[in-house]
Amino acid sequence: MKFAIQVNEGPYQHQATDSAYQFAKAALDAGHEIMRVFFYHDGVNNGTNLTTPPQDDRNIVNRWSELGKAHDLDLVVCVAAAQRRGIVDEGEMQRNGKDAQNIADGFRISGLGQLIEAGIQSERLMVFGD
Amino acid sequence: MSETIKKFMYLNRRAPYGTIYAWESLEVVLIGAAFDQDVSLAFIGDGVYQLLEGQDTSESDMKNFSTTYKALGDYDVTKLYVEKESLEERGLTLDDLMPLTWEDEDDDWAEKDSIRLVSRAELADVLDDQDIVYSF
Question: Where is the signal peptide (chain B) (predicted)?
Answer without folding.
Answer: none
